[in-house]
Specification:
404 residues; alpha/beta; Rossmann fold; 6-stranded parallel β-sheet; 15 helices; 23% strand; binds ligand PMT
């Protein structure tokens, strides 16, 4: 999949530069044509000659070292690239790009690039967590840059934590997946709900739950990568909106119901991973209710069961629900499949370690009407998301051959 791709590898100065040499080799072995720009500090860790030999191309370090008098090097390189990868990306280059600073060959070229740019950060754990770095990463995400998250583990500075440049093999896998021609959801509209709902008690209080939106956002990103037009209907969470995804922010179950209903008709697939409140206060006050002596009773009424309502009106849409259970997983999940007229239920035992609310991983079992349940092991939520979508794809059998 990387065969023939023109990849501009931008290497900035940190101890992980040695991994960039291995990365250059792996990319060329995959058939990619690789050109390398080294920042001045990167060249102090590994010499340009290493990258020149591995890439079999000239290596660029200096804006004013014009190797071909017919072109302006930084513009020529920017135009040449099908894809730009900044690895390792230091806090310094992340800050420069977020603020439009172009003061060397690498940053000048990056500013002129129109191809997709992937950033693979590597730095000390505290640097990575610093609000300034996080703010810059957020800015770059808003500009449409993609990220290859650093891994966790032993760092060269002696700390253990998040900040290691992802392994070259994994970076190559990610790029292969991202540039894959496989867009099985091309032409399909996928509507995903994520996060919690908030049910108002008064102007300062509400009922809610522990959903962080991680599962639903991972599904939205995977669906986007599979070529779908994605609408993500999200309750209040602290995650940033994924790029290339239509976002609708809601608060209450009723607002989520209205938003889903609005998107439903044109949808091909609806995945309801949100943790929707089943009850809301019967009365919501527009002021802060004063405390009174003694006990208080909060009267609750049922919210609409959105999945159930969709199951009643669905025509050609494929409907996927979740089931968050703490016991009798199979029995309850199968019950929801039938009662809510869903096509698929993704059940997670939210009491299991590494599963359910707030974690970066999940353990799910997928139930369909026909066939045995599909039990998945502990996986990163992004991998769970891909598996869910691949299973949902079986409902679009006729389209499979056209788009795969
Ligand atoms: O967001 P994270 O922190 O990553 O956590 C992920 C998750 C635990 C929230 C997710 O994996 C999950 O299990 N989501 C479903 C939570 C839930 O509400 O389950 P349920 O068994 O109560 O509901 C069954 C299905 O009916 C769900 O698809 C739910 O969206 C839907 N439902 C429920 C109530 C309601 N009023 N309307 C609905 O549509």
């Amino acid at each position: 999949m990387l065969n023939g791709k023109k990849i501009l590898l931008c290497v900035t100065g940190g101890i992980a530069v040695f991994k960039a040499a291995a990365l250059t080799s792996k990319l060329t072995q995959k058939g990619a044509e690789v050109k390398v720009i080294l920042s001045e500090s990167a060249a102090k860790f590994v010499t340009p000659l290493t990258f020149q030999v591995l890439s079999k191309n000239d290596v660029y370090t200096d804006t004013f070292d014009e190797k071909n008098s017919k072109v302006v090097a930084h513009i020529d390189l920017a135009d040449w690239a099908d894809l730009v990868l900044i690895a390792p990306a230091t806090a310094n280059v992340i800050g420069k790009l977020a603020n439009g600073i172009a003061d060397n060959m690498l940053s000048t070229t990056c500013l002129a690039v129109t191809a997709p740019v992937y950033i693979a950060p590597a730095m000390n754990v505290h640097m990575y967590a610093h609000p300034a770095v996080q703010k810059n990463l957020q800015t770059l995400a808003n500009y449409g840059y993609r990220f290859i998250e650093p891994g966790e583990g032993y760092l060269a500075c002696g700390y253990v934590g998040k900040g290691r440049l992802e392994e070259p093999e994994t970076i190559v896998d990610i790029l292969e997946f991202e540039t894959s021609a496989e867009k099985p959801f091309k032409g399909k509209k996928v509507v995903i709900t994520a996060g919690p709902t908030r049910e108002k008690i008064d102007s300062v209080r509400f009922l809610s739950n522990h959903s962080t939106g991680k599962m639903g956002y991972a599904i939205a990103e995977a669906a986007r990568d599979f070529g779908a037009e994605v609408v993500l209907i999200s309750g209040p969470v602290s995650l940033s909106a994924p790029t290339g995804v239509g976002m609708i922010q809601i608060e209450s179950a009723e607002e989520m119901y209205q938003a889903v209903l609005h998107e439903f008709e044109g949808a091909d697939l609806v995945i309801k991973s949100a943790a929707v409140a089943d009850y809301r206060p019967k009365t919501a006050y527009d002021y802060k209710v004063k405390k009174l002596p003694g006990e208080q009773l909060l009267e609750l009424e049922r919210t609409k069961d959105i999945l159930f309502e969709l199951g009643k009106i669905k025509t050609s849409q494929v409907l996927v629900g979740f089931a968050a259970e703490t016991d009798h997983l199979e029995e309850y999940a199968k019950g929801k499949l039938e009662r809510k007229n869903a096509d698929m239920i993704v059940a997670n035992n939210v009491k299991s370690e590494g599963a359910g609310f707030g974690t970066d991983t999940n353990i799910v079992t997928i139930f369909k009407r026909n066939g045995d349940p599909i039990e998945l092991p502990l996986l990163a939520k992004k991998d769970v998301a891909q598996r869910i979508l691949k299973e949902a794809l079986t409902f679009f059998k006729d389209d499979l051959n056209e788009n795969c």
